[in-house]
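user: can you give me the structure for this one chain? tokens are fine.
assistant: on it. calling the predictor now.
[tool input]
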Amino acid sequence: MLLSRYIAVRLLQVVPVLLAIVTIEFLIIHLAPGNPALILAGPTANPAYIRSVEQQFGLNKPLIDQYFIYLWNLLHGNLGTSVLSREPVFQVVGERVGATLLLVLPAWAISLALGIYLGTKAGLKRGSWLDRGLSVTTLTLYSIPVFWLAVMLVAVFSIRLDLLPIAGIVYPVYPGAGLAYVLDVATHMVLPLTCMIVFYMPQFYQLTRTSVASTLEEDFPRTLQAAGLEKTSTFSRYILKNASLPVITLAGLWIGYSLTGAVLIEVVFAWPGLGILLFDSAVGRDYPVLLGIFLVASLLVVIVALVTDIVCVMIDPRLRYGQVEG
């Protein structure tokens, strides 16, 4: 009953959070310098044509009117029309979400699995050569600029060794189905996937290692050791369960951030996802598409945060009592 009440409270909090996010994003984008009408009309266009473009996209109206029109359309499932491509924003963003998720989800799963496994090993043997070696290695990997790493991977494996494709998601010569197509996509994923894993895995490792090490300082591990469980898998499961809350929280936040945070990787590898769409839309001042991308990313962050909170309170019921009563 208390868990159901907690979920209901969290669901009620989602509405004002989303409204605040939409408002902030709208103001930030529309108050930024630049006029989409000038980009569409061109530098040599006369003022009359520029005004007609502004009227066509509603850019000549006061900002408060544009805001309420946007909210009204949003409530009816209308994200607007792209200023650059003249296509519905829902269609433009929807065509890119799949490519980004195809890259983000495997990177998230592999980074999380490696980070938890290595972090648990290092935390249980803190101070050992294994702990020191893994900590130095992951810190070194995390310190590498992801843009530089992407360029180096392309230079070595694509240009020098000619083993992997430079950019894109498929070769144009392959049809859009069949085993050859699947292998082609998988081959194109290797380099950008490696970049994301190298950047994100050390974060999961370090947080897991720190959580496991701090959990071992509590009282219950000593009780388990006294019961003779230190050398068994049961001991590791108890430790990992109590140390998993920060890792679960980071894993949830990482998914939402990765949707738009992989801009550099997608630009270097010309990966046709939301990251490169965000870059092109920002350069072209395509306000509707920018708002659509941020809305999708924000909605995913809110949903993942809600699921993460529910998972955390199921693991540790003490969080449930404190938040519901507060």
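assistant: here you go. The chain has a mean pLDDT of 79. The chain is about 75% helix and 0% strand.
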